[in-house]
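Fresh eyes needed here. I'd like your take on this protein's tokenised backbone:
***
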Amino acid sequence: MKPFLHSIPLLLFVLILSGCKKQIAGTVKSFHVTSGTRYIDEVFSSVDTSLFKVGYRIAKTYHSSDTILKMNVYQPAGDTLRLRPAVVFIHGGGFSGGTEKDYYADSICSALARRGYVTISIGYRLGIAWAPHMSNADSILKQLEAAYRADQDARAAIRYIRKSSSIGRIDTTKIFIGGASAGVLCTWACIGPKLPSTSFCGHHAYHNRTVGSPKNM
């Protein structure tokens, strides 16, 4: 049986900068800032990657072993703004592959950091407990369990970001979340039971909803 999650078209998170421009856009003078509008243009020439491999959770995998989940934090180098909006990126891989270090995640996070965001690529538990001669119903259940583990981890990462003063001077009232492929499904699960307002163009989904309050995460 072809896993049903793999049959869902690839969904790519794109943060709609124009949607949040009224709240956070503006030109900010800082050491490494070039000409342009912060949050819209790449106004920083380099990215600070000193906060990589930050452990945020110890969790049980699907075969009951402990694993340390990590995140990579990208910051605009030389930025002096006291509080910055953050973007949490969840990588794809069908809940069985991919890492927070993927080239695609690194490219997205670096590009947004050069625009003035603190961007965070998170790792989450991977793996689906397949078994020989599994029924279609059991196969779907195991895939949903993998998706649920990823959702738990994403929520834990956001709680950690909100509470940790060491993560990049973040304005915790302006945290955006998104991802690619399985990461988009995880995003939808994180932001609440009601799917966000979306518009589809080819295989892309766009939204700019912020995450809920800490008690809902």
